[in-house]
């Protein structure tokens, strides 16, 4: 029904930056909330940031001031700009979309994840 495709992960040195993108496509009437989660090597999944259609955002405290979430509603795409990256930011980053489908069902969809590794 709905597909999410993430891109932009990779290997970066501590203090560096990366920009993740997630594009949604398929049977979409409206995307209510888009967000990013991450799963650490210790298998802890945590919210990174989320953004509603109108723009209000929510960040986990440890990311505030370093990460910025934004979205392009016309492109059904959410971005995560990550600056001042630390080794503890190493994780698989997953995109989540809270979608009202064309058949007016409200469902959550996940991307497959993109690896971010912060290491010197």
Description of the molecule:
0% of the residues lie in helices and 62% in strands. The protein is built from no helices and eleven strands. Strands 2, 4, 5, 6, 9, 10 and 11 form a seven-stranded mixed beta sheet that branches. Strands 1-3-8-7 form a four-stranded antiparallel beta sheet, with no helix packed on it.
Show the helix and strand layout.
Blueprint (H helix, E strand, L loop, with lengths): L1 E6 L2 E3 L5 E9 L1 E12 L5 E8 L4 E3 L7 E6 L4 E6 L8 E11 L4 E5 L3 E5 L2
Parallel strand pairs: 2-11
Antiparallel strand pairs: 1-3, 3-8, 4-5, 4-9, 5-6, 7-8, 9-10, 9-11
Provide the descriptors you would attach to this structure in a database record.
120 residues, mainly beta, seven-stranded mixed beta sheet, four-stranded antiparallel beta sheet, 11 strands, 0% helix
Averaging pLDDT over every residue, what do you get? 93
**Helical/strand content category:** mainly beta
Question: How would you spell out the order of helices and strands?
Answer: EEEEEEEEEEE
Largest sheet: 7 strands, mixed
Shape: elongated
Radius of gyration: 14 Å
Note the total helix count.
0
How much of the polypeptide forms β-strand, as a percent range?
Answer: over 45%
The total of beta strands comes to: 11
User: How far from one another are the termini?
Assistant: 40 Å
Q: Helix proportion of residues, in percent?
A: under 10%
Note poorly predicted spans. Answer: none
